[in-house]
Each structure stands twice: as structure tokens, then as C-alpha cells.
Specification:
490 residues; mainly beta; eleven-stranded antiparallel beta sheet; 4 helices; 44% strand; globular; Tocopherol_cyclase; Tocopherol cyclase
Length: 490
């Protein structure tokens, strides 16, 4: 790298410019093919059967290690670990996805820490139990799930958080399930080779580096599982959550800095380019500049009901496109038993961010329990429509819950067919079409419940909450003046 590296704390950090717009090769990863004007026809995922994965022989060397970038322009608010040291019910979860267009499939790693403030209720062993009732009344522990190629799954669980670490202000975390003999588990980011020297089973991940080895614990008898996964890849972030080159935004607004309207949600990297390899069971996948994505949640528990769509692989337009949309039913602060239903749509296209949130417009949806997602939204200047379908059953994934801990609660697929339409609104004449693109590699999800038929709702926040959340408050700037009061994770 051109910039010189500095030793800061446990990790190497340096200031880098944002990733450049993709070259022709990169563009083929994000957007390719002829223009399409309809949701792609439903079909089986036959393309996945033409899998170029190779059988494992000798282990591959690590890709060049890329240290965490300090003050990078794509850093979003809420990148850090939000646990504040209290004993209240708390979880934090992270989602890292890499899509490989050549095989029309993806890999997603989901890491969860539950009840880090109640260390006394769990064993300090690193056994991988992880069934719903194994962690006692506090459901204390660390979980790692992987949803991978051909809808296979892996789950490893540790009934302790003692070997978990997370940076207070940076997207950097890791956990050691099994350390190397005679070695102490890491408590911060390490250079790639040093991590291998100290960790037998575990992971570490930052915005620019992700590596680890996990072993399935055998607690998912009704799912297609693999025995193990080993991986290492570096990432060049392209988009955070906001216009390229400008201050990045909190996905849920400035009030996400405080424990209200939980759970909170932050897209940390709407799009990036990842290069490295994955060993999934007995097959190896190598990739270069593969589209990647990162988000996180934190708070008391997941919403009681939710939906989600995400893709950064589209056909029908030049340039890189990244889409995330989600909505849920969440509890209201200070009003036991009360809840609200909210949703949002966020689109990055050619450096510009198009945001549709209920405090600056309306978001309307019609979501089936599984198989159909329809969302429309508008603000003062733009409007958007999303239509997505799935003809595959998907994979059941575990989520944090209040009464059962980490338990199967949602359904996901990487093979969603989606059409995205975006317009600039006009006061005279027809609205201007900005995007009309399709994807057959969209991630789709529904979760929670109850789902009694389609979920239909129109979300528009009312006064005074609408006005309050819409205030142009720069929480990070305020707390820089009072660093001792700055919340964890911001």
C-alpha cells in the first residue's frame, strides 16, 4: 500500500482513499447482461450446479493482510461494539456477505453475542452446544452461523463470551472457540499469520480483513450442513451508508445513539470488493473483487416480526448499484406492550445515496410469509418500487430472542429475483427514470411473527417523533466535545 502503516493499539491502521469505481472486470461482478424490464422468471437455481469450486488439496497461503483503516471515508456511525458493561438484556449481531457471481451463489457469516453482562450463568468451556435451551435463563454466549453455497449451513456456539472481543469505536471483532495449545486467545485484531498461530477455531473480522476456521456443532439435524469452513479475504470498501466522499449516516437516525426504539440497525458497508478464498466443507472457492456487504443489529432482542432485502448484483445498467431494504415491528420506549411498524429503502448508485425513511416520507409494503416482497417508498424528490420473489424454500437461521435465546426464527435465500425501479419526481410531466434493473442474486428474508397472511402496512412517522428524528443532529460531533460521555459503539 502506498500509505505508511502506523502501529496503534493492537492493529495496524492507515488512512486510505475510498475504493475506486470498479474496472471493467469489477463491473462484471456488480452489473452485467442485457437490460431487463421485468422481475426475472422464476426458475430453479440450475446455475449453481455449474459450480467451479475445486476439491481441497494443499492449503492455500493467506491473501495479503489488510489492516483496519482509521478514519476511512466510508466509516459509518455505530461501527463499534455497543455493550456498555451493564447487566441489562443485550445482544449484538453482525452480518458479513460475499457474493460470487461466477457461481451465482453467496456466503454469509452471522456473529452474535448475547448477555455479555451476565458472566456468572455460563460455563467457561468452549463446547459447541448452542441448542435453544442450553444456555440457561440468561442465554449467555457467542454464536457463529454461516449460510453458504448450495443452501448449506454451519453453526458453532460457545457458552461464554470470555473469548470474544470487540472494538468500542471500530468495526472490529473476533472470538476464539478453541485456542492453539499453550496460546492465549487474542483480544484485538492480529496480523493474519499471528492469528493462525494463536487460534485453532475462531474468527476475526474488520472492514478490510476477514479470516477464521469454524466447525459445525451438530445441533442442526434438519438442515443441510457442512463439517467446517476455513476462509481468508481482504476487502476494499466502496460505499458506507451515504453519498460517496461525504459524512456517512446512521441508518436509523441520530436517536440510535441511545437505547430507545430497539433493536437498532446499521448498514456498515453497503458495497465493497473482496478478494480471497473460502474452503466450504471439501470444496474451495477463490474469488477476486467479489461484491460484499456488512450490517449489524443491537439492543434487547430482534423485532417481533420483520422482512429484509439486499443485493449489489444487478443487470440492466452500467455502474455499481447497492440496495438494502428492511422493515419490522418493534417496541416503543416507556410504553409497555406498544409497538410501531417501520421500514426503509436505501440505494447507492454511481456515488449518490437515495434514502427513503418514514421520517422524511412514506414507505409502504405488502410482504407474504414467504415468496413475495413488494415495497414502494417516496420522499420529496424521489420514489422507488421493489418487487421480489423466491421459488426456493430458503434456509432457517437463528436469531436472538428474549425468551429462547439464539433460536431458529427466520427464513433466508440468496436466490431471490428482484426488480428495482427508481424515479426522480417531476412537478411537470412524467417522472424521470433513474434505474430500472433486475437481479437474480438477491438476498431475501422474513422472520418472527405471527404471519397470518400477507403483512401490509404504510409507515409514516407522526409528530413529534417525525420532527425529532428528522433534526440534523450530528451526534458524533457533539460527543467529540465530551468524550467521557460518548456511548459505546458510536
Amino acid at each position: 500500500m502506498a500509505a505508511s502503516a502506523l502501529k496503534v493499539g493492537c492493529g495496524l491502521v492507515e488512512r486510505l482513499a475510498p475504493a475506486p469505481a470498479p474496472t471493467t472486470a469489477m463491473q462484471s461482478s456488480f452489473n452485467s447482461g442485457p437490460e431487463a424490464d421485468r422481475v426475472p422468471a422464476l426458475s430453479s437455481k440450475a446455475a449453481a450446479s455449474a459450480n467451479p469450486a475445486v476439491k481441497l488439496t494443499a492449503p492455500l497461503p493467506l491473501p495479503p493482510y489488510t489492516p483496519t483503516v482509521k478514519d476511512r471515508p466510508t466509516r459509518t456511525p455505530h461501527s463499534g461494539y455497543h455493550f456498555d458493561g451493564s447487566s441489562r438484556r443485550f445482544f449484538e449481531g453482525w452480518y458479513f456477505k460475499v457474493s460470487i457471481p461466477e457461481i451465482k451463489d453467496s456466503f454469509a457469516w452471522m456473529y452474535t453475542v448475547e448477555e455479555p453482562g451476565s458472566l456468572t450463568s455460563s460455563s467457561s468451556s468452549s463446547s459447541s452446544s448452542g441448542d435453544e435451551n442450553s444456555t440457561g435463563p440468561k442465554f449467555h454466549g457467542t454464536g457463529a452461523q454461516v449460510m453458504g453455497a448450495n443452501d448449506h449451513y454451519l453453526f458453532q456456539y460457545d457458552k461464554t463470551v470470555r473469548n470474544f472481543w470487540g472494538s468500542r469505536h471500530e468495526l472490529a471483532l473476533g472470538h476464539t472457540f478453541v485456542p492453539k495449545y499453550g496460546k492465549r486467545p487474542p483480544n484485538c485484531e492480529l496480523e493474519g499469520e499471528e492469528f493462525l498461530d494463536r487460534v485453532e477455531e475462531g474468527f476475526q473480522v474488520t472492514p478490510t480483513w476477514h479470516q477464521g476456521f469454524l466447525r459445525d456443532n451438530g445441533k442442526s439435524p434438519h438442515m443441510k450442513t457442512v463439517d467446517s469452513i476455513r476462509w481468508a479475504y481482504s476487502t476494499k470498501p466502496r460505499y458506507g451508508w451515504g453519498d460517496a466522499g461525504k459524512s456517512q449516516k446512521a441508518t436509523a437516525g441520530w436517536l440510535a445513539a441511545f437505547p430507545v426504539f430497539e433493536p437498532h440497525w446499521q448498514i456498515c458497508m453497503a458495497a465493497g470488493y473482496s478478494t480471497g478464498w473460502i474452503e466450504w466443507g471439501d470444496e474451495r472457492y477463490e474469488f477476486k473483487d467479489a461484491p460484499s456487504y456488512v450490517e449489524k443489529n443491537w439492543g434487547g432482542s430482534f423485532p417481533s416480526k420483520w422482512f429484509w432485502l439486499q443485493s449489489n448484483i444487478f443487470e440492466g445498467a452500467a455502474g455499481d448499484i447497492a440496495l438494502t431494504s428492511g422493515g419490522g415491528r418493534r417496541g416503543l420506549p416507556l410504553i409497555p406492550g406498544a409497538y410501531e411498524e417501520v421500514a426503509m429503502v436505501g440505494i447507492h448508485y454511481d456515488g449518490k445515496f437515495y434514502e427513503f425513511v418514514p421520517w422524511r416520507g412514506t414507505v409502504e409494503w405488502d410482504i407474504a410469509p414467504w415468496g413475495s416482497w413488494k415495497i414502494t417508498a417516496e420522499n420529496k424528490y424521489y420514489k422507488v418500487r421493489l418487487d421480489a420473489v423466491s421459488d426456493v424454500p430458503g434456509v432457517n437461521l437463528r436469531c436472538p430472542t428474549v425468551d429462547k435465546g439464539l433460536t431458529p426464527l427466520c427464513q433466508d435465500t440468496f436466490f431471490g429475483k428482484l426488480r428495482l425501479q427508481l424515479w426522480e419526481r417531476s412537478v411537470q410531466g412524467a417522472d424521470k427514470v433513474i434505474l430500472d434493473v433486475t437481479s437474480d442474486q438477491s438476498a431475501l428474508e422474513t422472520g418472527g411473527g405471527p404471519w397470518e397472511g400477507n403483512w401490509q402496512h404504510r409507515s409514516r412517522m407522526r409528530f413529534p417523533v417525525r420532527t425529532l428524528i428528522g433534526l440534523p443532529v450530528n451526534v458524533e460531533k457533539i460527543f467529540k466535545k465530551f468524550p467521557s460521555l460518548e456511548p459505546a459503539g458510536l
